[in-house]
Amino acid sequence: MDYSLTAEQDMILRSLRAFREQELEPYEAEVDRSGEVPQELGERIKARALEMGFYAPNLPESIGGGGLDYKTLALFERELGKTSYGLHGYIHRPSEILMACEGEQVDNYLKPCVSGEKKEVFALTEPGAGSDILSMATKAARDGEDFVINGSKHFISSPVEPDFAILFAWTGVQQTARGERKLVTAFLVDRGTPGFEIKRGPRCAAQRAYHTWQLFFDRCRVHQSQILGEEGQGFELADKWLKMGRVWVAAAACGKLERLLELATRYAAERRQFGQPIGKFQGTSFKLADMATDLQAADLLVMHAADKADQGIMQPEDAAKAKLFASEAVGRAADNTVQIYGGMGLMEELPVERLWRDARLDRIWDGTSEIQRHIISRSLLRPYES
Ligand SMILES: Cc1cc2nc3c(=O)[nH]c(=O)nc-3n(C[C@H](O)[C@H](O)[C@H](O)COP(=O)(O)OP(=O)(O)OC[C@H]3O[C@@H](n4cnc5c(N)ncnc54)[C@H](O)[C@@H]3O)c2cc1C
Fold first, then answer.
1. Distance CA 232, CA 213 (A)
2. Which in 176, 212, 342, 373 has the greatest CB count within 10 A?
3. Cα-to-centroid distance, 368 and ligand 1 (Å)
4. Are the beta carbons of 271 and 277 closer than 8 angstroms?
């Protein structure tokens, strides 16, 4: 695999870096403290992203997206991962499963998400169904040409209140060798549909300006034309999307890790105790060495997965390994950076404590570390199963 940047990747990353440094990072502390991105700022970020061609980079050029390949997208997420999700969330990367839109859905949902007119959420997790997603309670019961939806979702993230939800609900059961399994269908449900209520979720310690939403469905009626993809195939659609989502979390974790390493190294070189820079003490310098090694390993795992995705041969365990390693590595790095900064590491006026809190989320969303280990170990043991 060739790790050098192409001329196009170099150009994209340079302008993305300048955008992040000049137009996002200056607002990080403020939005973290208030937990809100002022509407005017959010709209400005979105407008600038549209103008610079950074909006919807993950969807094909044929529908107005950036058409970037997976390796370039990994570099894109890595760069944005250095700053707050609350801010870079306005540079929308629509859910790739919207590519399953057909007929009028293309004009009503897919294209408006690419042009910035609409914003969707990906609504899978429920209060009673997190890692064990097939235990979901949200049900869509067929009634003639309609479905009647009852249930709720939580932890559904978006910087702004969504225009519609890609909602996963169970619509039937099938018999498998391991017993009954719920059949899940994806629906496009508009805000304002009677019986569909959206509320802000609780405040989160990590990525404070990036909100989560609670979605409630009470006898919410949608027409069958609102099904995304095939009836009963929603889980397969979700699974496809979640696999790449894990690579993006891993890539963003690498960006955060790089920023932490820069902060820790500079502080270790400048801060003096006992007559010398603290970086001269092995207790400090070895932490830097471990962080640098972790960063390189995490980057390689991310690029390996993205390269395989570009070739169409990425396996679930490739994404899981990248997500597991990068999210655990950034957690170690964040903790070590706080330690290197001493008391200053916990003060709100520096970015260290914020990165430390933000990094904690990476081991949880898009599948916890335990679930990634489950995926990896299952792939190892599968050949031996009878
Ligand atoms: C800020 C934020 C944003 C999010 N955004 C979205 C979103 O946009 N859309 C969406 O659908 N979801 C979203 N999520 C949900 C997220 O993906 C889940 O939180 C995650 O999958 C874990 O589910 P859970 O929190 O219910 O934990 P649980 O599944 O209850 O897990 C609790 C603990 O049990 C462990 N555990 C569970 N099962 C096993 C097992 N088989 N083996 C070993 N250990 C196990 C877990 O690893 C964890 O340590 C978001 C979450 C957060 C916090």
1. 25
2. 212
3. 6
4. yes
How high is the pLDDT of residue 177? 87
What token pair was written down for 185? 């269908």
- Ligand 1 centre to CA of 111 (Å) is 30
Alpha-carbon span 111 to 114, nearest angstrom: 5
Return the pLDDT at 36.
96
Q: Calculate what percentage of the chain has a pLDDT beyond 90.
A: 96
DSSP track, 176-190: ETTEEEEEEEEEEEE
Residue 134: predicted pLDDT: 92
Which ranges of the chain have pLDDT less than 70?
Answer: 241-242
- In angstroms, the CA 155 to CA 133 distance is 13
Q: Which of 316, 315, 301, 207 is nearest to 250 (CA)?
A: 301
Going by C-beta distance under 8 Å and a sequence separation of 6 or more, which residues neighbour residue 333?
A: 256, 257, 260, 261, 264, 291, 294, 295, 359
The predicted structure's pLDDT at residue 300: 98
| Cα 131 to ligand 1 centroid, rounded to whole Å | 5
* pTM for this entry: 0.97
Cα 319 to Cα 8: distance, rounded to the nearest angstrom: 25
